[in-house]
Each structure stands twice: as C-alpha cells, then as structure tokens.
Amino acid sequence: MITIKSKREIELLRIAGNIVYQTHQYLKPYIKEGITTKELDKLAEAFIRSKDSTPSFKGYEGFPTALCISVNSEVVHGFPSDRVLKNGDIVSIDIGACYKGYHGDSAWTYAVGEINEEKKFLLEHTEKSLFVGLEQVKPGNRIGDIGYAIEQYAKEHHLGVVRELCGHGVGTSVHEDPEVPNYGRKNTGPRLKEGMVIAVEPMLTLGSPRIFIHDNNWTVDTEDGRPSAHFEHTIVVTNDGYQILTGE
Ligand code: MG
Ligand code: MG
User: Taking a C-beta distance cutoff of 8 angstroms, is the pair 230, 70 a contact?
Assistant: First the structure.
C-alpha cells in the first residue's frame, strides 16, 4: 500500500532526511586513503546517535552495521570491515537514520583521492541520472516515467543499469511501497501524488549490469568486477514537483 504522508509526518521525514544529509557531510573529510570502512561506520553511527536518532539499517533483516559501504565493483550492501581505502578507489556510502519513528535514506559514491577518467565518468553520470529521474517526479506522472528516464540516460552514456535492486517508498519503515525501478516504460506503474515520499536510487555500472551476491548473503557485486556507483535521495512529491528531504 502506498501511503500519503500528513504535514506532520513530512516534517519528521524532513528532520530524519536532514540528519542523513548531515551525516554525509560529517563523513566527507574522513573519506581518504588509509581509513578503514569500519572506522567510517563507527564515526557515522556515533554522529547519528548524537542527533536523537538511530541508524535505520543496523539490525534491518539482520544487517550488521549502521552503514552500507561498498567499494569499487561492490554495488550496494557492503559490510564495513578492516578494508583500508586506497587512492583511486570509489566508495558508495548508504546512510539511513530514523528520527521519532520516521526514516531518511540517501547514498552517495565518493572518490578516494585521485580517481581515473572512467570512474569520474561513472560518478558524474550516475549522479546526473538521479536528477534526470527526479525531473519526472510530479503529481500525475507515474513511477515508470522515473525508471524510463534513468534507463534512457544510462543507455545514452553506455552505462549498465542494475535491475535487481530498486528505489522504494519511505516512511515509518525504511522500505515501503511502491518499488521504484531504475528502468521501465513511460506512463506505467502507480501514479505519483502529492505527499508520497520515495527514495530514487540509480545503481549504474561501467561494464555489464550483471551481479552476484557475496557469501555474506548481502553484498551485491558486479559479475565482471567493473566499477559501479550509487546515488540516492529521499524526496517528497509536492503539488508541482518534488522536494529533496536528504539535502541541505
Ligand atoms: Mg539507501
Ligand atoms: Mg534506499
């Protein structure tokens, strides 16, 4: 069931979203060669808890940590570990925070030091594909319009679209209806209405979009080992478009 959020709920979702945004900003200066992904997770968890909120992902269906941190070919759901970030890596950091029962969810892929041209291309165009998808968000448009726009943009830039994972509704649960695929057909799927809150989150690859899952049963990785990127915002549908909740 797709819920329409009340004004009060949207205010709580805005606070949760802003905590997620602040956590990204707080982490940024630490995303450098030499830090472990576990250290980033610890810093973020302490920060989230200092804001009267809890990490949405820790314990979610058994997920062990506050953040999902996915390096290079890892697409999503990487486990923070003793892995040390190196110059030239790209690292996708997915953050969820819950404030008074309401969630925010946003992922960003960061460069560690100097990255090569093809990784720069991947980051630039995966981020752009998020906003190309968001341009479709307004009352009357449909979920398929978002996926269609993202998929077309990815195709134009010869990037692969991971199809096994989708965006989603956000509210008192971090994952609610509807599913928001990063592919689709125009004018199909549920209609967008003012007060819906959804996370849009393209996951694009430099090579084939085919994936496999690590033995930990969570971490999604590209089959060909080529890099992938992930950009996500939680937004609310307004009367004439959308507002980002996980931004400033
Ligand atoms: Mg996320
Ligand atoms: Mg999400």
Answer: yes
Neighbouring-strand partners of residue 242: 237
Give the amino acid at 123.
L
Distance 232 CA to ligand 2 centre (A): 7
Its pTM stands at 0.98
Q: Ligand 2 centroid to 187 CA: how many Å? A: 23
Nearest Cα neighbor of 130 from 7, 246, 13 is 246
How far, in Å, is the centroid of ligand 2 from the Cα of 141? 21
State the ligand closest to the CA atom of 95.
Answer: 1
Residues 243 and 199 sit within 8 Å (Cβ to Cβ): no
Give, for all 248 residues of the chain, the pLDDT tens digit: 999 999 999 999 999 999 999 999 999 999 999 999 999 999 999 999 999 999 999 999 999 999 999 999 999 999 999 999 999 999 999 999 999 999 999 999 999 999 999 999 999 999 999 999 999 999 999 999 999 999 999 999 999 999 999 999 999 999 999 999 999 999 999 999 999 999 999 999 999 999 999 999 999 999 999 999 999 999 999 999 999 999 98
Q: What residues does each domain of the chain span?
A: 7-244
Distance 92 CA to ligand 1 centre (A): 10
- DSSP characters for 112-172? -SS--HHHHHHHHHHHHHHHHHHTT-STT-BHHHHHHHHHHHHHHTT-EE--S--EEE-SS
CATH of span 7-244 = 3.90.230.10
Give the Å distance between the CA of 28 and the centre of ligand 2: 20
